[in-house]
Amino acid sequence: MYAERVLSGMRPTGALHLGHYHGVLKNWVKLQHEYPCLFFAADWHALTTHYDNPQGIEQATWDMVIDWLAAGVDPNQATLFIQSKVPEHAELHLLMSMMTPLGWLERVPTYKDQQEKLAGKDLTTYGFLGYPLLMSADILIYRADKVPVGEDQIPHVEFTRELARRFNHMYGREPGFEDKAREAVKKLGGKKARLYDELRTRFQQNGDKEAVEQAKAMLNEIQHLSAADRERLFGFLEGTGKMILVEPDCLLTEASKMPGLDGQKMSKSYHNTITLRESEDSVAKKVKSMPTDTNRVRRTDPGDPARCPVWQLHQVYSDEGTKEWVQQGCRTAGIGCIECKQPVIDGILREQAPMRERAQVYLDDPTLVKNILADGCEKAREYARETMRDVREAMGLEYH
Ligand code: TRP
Ligand code: SF4
């Protein structure tokens, strides 16, 4: 059976933190056992906002990939690569740019949002406007079925779907497609042809998806149908033409609830993070200096965990017994805050221990990481070349 393909990318922005682990990487680690997965470092995407200072991107990429490996992403299960090492992304981006309406790009919500957020930076560039199109190329070039992303990226995947539809509609039709499709319907013979027409109408007029399924099942059972006719009949059924590019679905990653050291969401821009491979001393120091319930001024004052960022971390790291101990001890002033923080420190260190161990292997021998990425790039390129052959063919650029 055809296995659905998963693809996701991450911008190299330096050391990853526990928010990335809980929000993204844990999910990747799970997905790699369920689907063929492709994960890549989106270094060109980093350039859309860091074009004026690209020097750090390479180091950030190595560090990020080591963090992936540390988190348990397994290069024997998933394909790991660097975007700029698969230049086919750029070719697809260019070809699609010819048929992408400017208005579609201007209407992507992150376009104006980001410009406002990063007001100190001149983002009135061609590359920044084209950012969602580059992301579409990343996805479509692998004919990915599922794209795990956070909520903020949903509009980009939706944009990708529309673009794939437009592309297939525009280039997926051979000359005389409709006539050839009608010919193929006739060849089905009276009864089946009538049923096909009826199911097609049901879908096109009422959007009846079951009718599509039924028609496809019928077509799949016909032995004497040529592959070209089958393809035409599938395309004619849904009005799409031939499917050259695949419309991807979002695999929505639950928004990471990972709290930072101050109770806000953990994020680099809030300076409240603990990195994946942060030293043990630093973890202890950071947790020990976390703010607590501001009403608990003295050790003898009772507190309320609901008003304390440490409690939020207990919810990530502590078992029921410990949480009960916190609730009870905090409210009765039975425990002190320093005491209360220790299980959190222990929990984080326990989570980090295997990561630190896995990362050490790659830090000791950086050629291992380079080899993993070189192999991954090679594999990714094979997929990408295959898609580009079909795309060039459809656009009349094969030069046979
Ligand atoms: N735009 C994504 C982000 O900023 C990163 C990204 C680039 C991506 N290309 C992609 C994610 C393709 C999924 C698929 O987080
Ligand atoms: Fe927060 Fe724990 Fe102190 Fe209560 S005892 S205020 S939960 S750190």
Q: Can you tell me about this structure?
A:
There is one protein chain. The protein is mainly α. It folds into three domains: 208 residues, 3-Layer(aba) Sandwich (Rossmann fold), CATH 3.40.50.620; 62 residues, no CATH class; 87 residues, Tyrosyl-Transfer RNA Synthetase (Orthogonal Bundle), CATH 1.10.240. Helices cover 58% and strands 6% of the residues. Helix 4 packs across helix 8. It is elongated. It starts with 5 loop residues before the first strand and ends in a 6-residue tail after the last helix. The site of iron/sulfur cluster has 14 residues, from helix 15, helix 16 and helix 17.
The CATH homologous superfamily of the largest domain corresponds to HUPs
Mean pLDDT across residues: 93
Low-confidence stretches: none
The helix count comes to 18
Q: What's the number of domains?
A: 3
Span of the ends, CA to CA: 33 Å
Beta strands, count: 5
CATH T-level fold name of the largest domain: Rossmann fold
Task: Provide key terms for this protein.
single chain; 400 residues; mainly alpha; Rossmann fold; Tyrosyl-Transfer RNA Synthetase; 3 domains; three-stranded parallel beta sheet; two-stranded parallel sheet; 18 helices; 58% helix; elongated; binds tryptophan; binds iron/sulfur cluster
